[in-house]
Amino acid sequence: HATPNSSGSVEFPPGFLWGTATAAYQVEGAGHEDGRQDSVWDVFCRIPGAVHHGDDGMVACDHYHRYREDVALMKSLNLDTYRFSTSWARVVPDGRTVNRKGLDFYSRLVDELLTADIMPWLTLYHWDLPQALEDLGGWPARDTASRFADYAAVMADALGDRVPVWTTLNEPWCSAFLGYTSGSHAPGKKSPELGLAAAHHLMLGHGLAVEALRDRVPQASLGITLNFTVSDPVDPTNPADVDAARRDDGMFNRIFLDPILRGAYPQDLLVDVAHLGLAELIRPGDLEIISTPIDVLGVNYYNGGAVAATPEPRGDAPLATAGPDGARDQDAGSPLWVTRSPNPVPEGIHPHARGLPTTDMGWEVQPEGLTRLLLRLQEDYTGPRGSAMFVTENGAAYPDVVEQDGTVDDQDRLEFLDAHLRALKDAIDAGADVRGYFAWSLMDNFEWALGYSKRFGLTRVDYETQERTVKSSGRWYADVARDNVVPARG
Ligand code: PNW
């Protein structure tokens, strides 16, 4: 792509969808209302020291009660679509019995969205596994995949006539490896074997759910959202660094991409993890189920990273300092995984900071990584399989500076979004089939192990009053969504 979209105005293709995303546990609150029972996150939040400040999602943004106001907020931002997740623990609280009142909430939300002419984009699983199913073994147990397909069928029967796009899982990498290997997310287990077993059964659950949805809502678009990194070797002329980047890419990206979009685990990855029991879990037929054709691939991109085979800082690339998540991973207790900012990485892979600016998460800001990622996905995965891509999450945490009149002039977040939308348009111009973009997030919310300390919202939430205030980035994004154009800079 010869002309990078550097500062002029940038127009997106006609019909491009503009949205924002949230997740049930991060915004809803109403923790034990209308029959909802504990998810793994409710239980994890009660472990002393597990979550910053002892925060939890019992109230969060009180979206369960304020959804009408929040849909009006979306309307004021000119959004075409809203990506939300449904809480398994609300709909099937004990893991087997359907809770009609829980379903009714999502029915009201979907109706409110449709009335506002905002397309509902539903994610079935954004990490809130019913604790009752964790007690039976959680994702490392094969049966959880079947329970997930049952839950998918319940949702399809209730909302299939009104929801045009369904994604099964959000970021199974986080569910598997933060939940069961580094222990920094619920349920806080620390075992490489459990993480891999969880990954396989999450994908099996995805495939079974796609089959269940396809039967019930044949007219809908179906897919999954994965989170990606872009791994660069610190020294591209050093074969050991190149190999570290290969393994990092394998355990982060290809471990999900290849089974889902090509029907096979990467051969090099199976060799790398041969001692961890993954191959023994795979039953005949699993990969056919996992690779059931999908229509959309959701792409979550926050940052890439440079990795090396040795920990020593080299040149101007100091060893990355642990981010907020990484700080916890340091004492993860698993010798096979080491700290990275912010993610745990397999043994023998060492992240190096590149001197790029970072967000309040400690994550490097690297917009051109998004261009490379989307082109690679197009060429190696979605193109051959005919599925379209959507950026289902992208955004940044920065501390809010609240002015005397209550406004928040978050130029840092605005510039982050501007740069990533230009990088996205570069990818589209070079041939990537990307049809929409969801900013993370509609509003500040419960940032998992970091509690309410990190703010990703286009809208500020005052957690004392639950007042919502659109930030400068939100007003800017509303114009982008209205005009289908990123305006010229400066
Ligand atoms: C994603 N990591 O989470 C999630 O989908 C959102 O729920 C979350 O709020 C958002 O990104 C911002 O963090 C991630 O440690 C959490 O690599 C942690 C990691 C990646 C993604």
TrEMBL record:
The keyword Transport does not apply. It comes from the Bacteria. Keywords: Glycosidase, Hydrolase. The active site is at E393 (nucleophile). InterPro entries: GH, GH_1_N_CS, Glyco_hydro_1, Glyco_hydro_1_AS. SUPFAM superfamilies: (Trans)glycosidases. GO terms for molecular function: beta-glucosidase activity. Its EC number is 3.2.1.21. Residues 310-359 are annotated as: Disordered. The keyword Cytoplasm does not apply. Belongs to the glycosyl hydrolase 1 family. This is beta-glucosidase.
